[in-house]
Give the backbone structure.
Amino acid sequence: MEIRKGSRLRNFHQAKWDEEVIFELNTPGERGIHIPEVEKEISDVVGDGLSKIPVAMRRAAPPGLPEVGQMRVLKHFLRLSQQNLGADLNIDIGQGTCTIKYNPKINEKIAASQKARAIHPHQDVSTVQGALRVMHEMDLYLREISGMDRFSLQPSSGSHAILTMASIMHKYHESRGQAETRDELITTMFSHPSDAAAAAVKGYKIITIYPDEQGFPDLEALKAAVSERTAGLFITNPEDIGIFNPKIAEFTRVVHEAGGICGYDQANANGILGITRAREADFDLCFFNLHKTFAAPHGCGGPGGGALGATQELADYLPVPLVGLDGDRYFLDYDVPHTIGKVRSFWGPFPVILKSYAWILSMGAEGLKEAAHVAVLNNNYLLKKIREIDGATSPYTGGKHRIEQVRYSWEKLYEETGVDTHDVTLRLADFGFHLWQSHHPFVVPQPFTIEPTESYSKEELDEYLDGLRHVVREARTEPETVKRAPHNSVVHRIDDSTLDDPGKWAVTWRAFLKKHGEAAAKIRD
Amino acid sequence: MKTLGLIVNPVAGMGGAVALKGTDGLEILERAEQLGATPKAHARAGQALAGLLTSYDSFELLTFSGDMGESSAIACEVEPQVIGSGSTPRTTPEDTVEAARQMAERGVDLLLFAGGDGTARDICGAIGTFVTTLGIPAGVKIHSAVFASSPAAAGRVAASFLSGAIARVKEAEVMDIDEEEYRRQVLSARLFGYLKIPDARRLLQGPKAGSAVHDRAIQAAIAQGIFERMTDDRLYIVGPGTTLQPLMDLLGLDNSLLGVDIVRAGEQIAKDVSEREILEKIADTACTLVLTPVGGQGFVVGRGNQQISPAVIRKVGKQNIIIAATPEKLTTLRGRPLLIDTGDVETDACLCGYYRVVTGYRDSAVYRVSD
């Protein structure tokens, strides 16, 4: 692979271990640790440890967990870790909509300290006043940032927070005798897909507003959509293509006039911290993703934090317990008149909350605003540079500035060379760059979404740009190099044609054996 | 080794450059030649083959002699197996039909054809959805959804399909307009049938996007969504289009893919009806019209379903129209509205506005319809 002279690109070759699934390492009799015999004093009290568990709750057979020695387990997971390309290794701006920013390591240390780790939610609240203070003050900070009146820190992700918003909305309409008739939830095409999905889980019918030719959600379509069946509107702003809906106050007004609730998905808040707030746009509910905007790590699917705020009227519906302050004593507040109950065990994902709390303290009010400014500046620097690449375009808005991210298109490159966005994505992996592929639905043809956040330096942004330019040059001179990429990765191209086939997909080892048993065995042989 | 069939309609496209709006029929072809038109299809087939060969070359090529395919292949340095020949001195639509039949009998993996809507109709009539096909756009009229966006794109899709990178196929509409009428400034498109083409839609799903669902599954969801809203006291006029096929399947009824059917309380009242028959059936009963956009431009009324006339629409009433479309179909419009063209300005004006388009089970979009 030849890299242009003067380019900042680096060669990258990923470790490949051809590692088994841990279940395949199973060797009956092997042990990671030998658990010592129970001391007599204990067994005198609890017996054999099983008999006191109700029969109905006891397993008939032990779980089929893999039996593997400790050293093999260690090697297994270290090998897998080398096959990763995590946010701390690469310039992870190609994971648009995810707000991949730096997660300060000192916050990891704080969350891993004995003070945070060794407490238990079953302790008496008088012994965990510090933890409660963190949660209470987090609530106050988020109120200030959003303009909402009270926050619940229970939801553990964005989608979880959306489901919680849907539950609150449902209970609110129920309290007014309208839960049955108000069964429609409105969202927009470029809002996060979970706004529709999580509301559908709650039982709502989903109405989607499509973008107009300029990429803005169609206000006239919203006016045609609302009715006495409208439960509410869940919307992301700026939307997932980086465009801020300039008529957002009109949107909330139209929905309120129809008797609906407005829920603000603030997954894309990174460019508007300290600039604009949910309160001023007249939302009733909103949530922040602590694992995005507030610098806690994404952690590959968890734990996350979906801090959920409500206006005074809807604060009475928040999950319990909330954290209150009585004089100088923090307490768990179960006195929430219309609460929807609990949406999670205990109080919320405390380590995540703690990391975000530490980040807010370290940034300060001005720092948060500056982070937003830099995130927007970085984005618009990239917008200008990417628009100069022959083959890349930024559909909608005629090249005007966006907020914190842009959904670009390789349509022109594809038309001219046959190299599509999937090919470009895979070729970038050869240079150690991550460009992910979640741009569903494909409203923008051959899409790619870049979100640089405030964390990356100009040098890093330029390195990534060099990667894009290099691959585009290859697409025009040696397209097969791009179309056969990746060349240095752990896996080559994956056949995704059965993604929607329940007969083929398997998310557990047991399901895999059931659906692919013989075929899988043959591959291994 | 995979086998590829190639059929070139040598005269396709000749009428376009001399503003004849098509090249159907010998008389028009002769007029085109008099006006100085030259054959184009041969070169466009060559571009597609060249595009194909850049990334896939281990296939056997079956074709007809001379300008029906052989010469395009030789120009690309491919030695084809010539399995027949067309009429002389001019090839005819019957030659296209014959070539398609022979290739189907020989079990080609993919049939590439260079032509326009007329050629697509001929192939559709000959082999239907028996063989996977793909059109190289070379004709004047390209209203059918069976063509790639360019000859080079046709080559790329063919390569992906033959190599197995595209594993799925889908049915796509074969549309044609009446050239005589079109020359008189009247656009009257008809839906002639369906061809099976490679499904080039890329399933690029990140974990965040949820599960990827194929069009067919979405159509089934749409059917369920409409089914639950149906009541026994109404007549349902079900328009043409594959999107509505699963609805008829769900009702256990035979579907006129290209025509209009009438249904009540799970019974088929009438099949493949004309405008007059529709008006008779709905004369004194409440009814609902179920439509789906036909073709690539997003026409809900006026292309391929002319039975749904202004008189029918006035009787049904705008509020009783259900439009169904997969999200993919709506997104391909890129923000442009769905279209109507009933031929009656007043009816068109009355139909404009926003509709609740059924896009899945308990899923809909509010979308603009315009004239």
Notes: The longest helix of chain A spans residues 350-387. Chain A touches chain B through 46 residues (CB under 8 Å). The first strand of chain A starts at residue 150 and ends at 152. The mean pLDDT of chain A is 92.
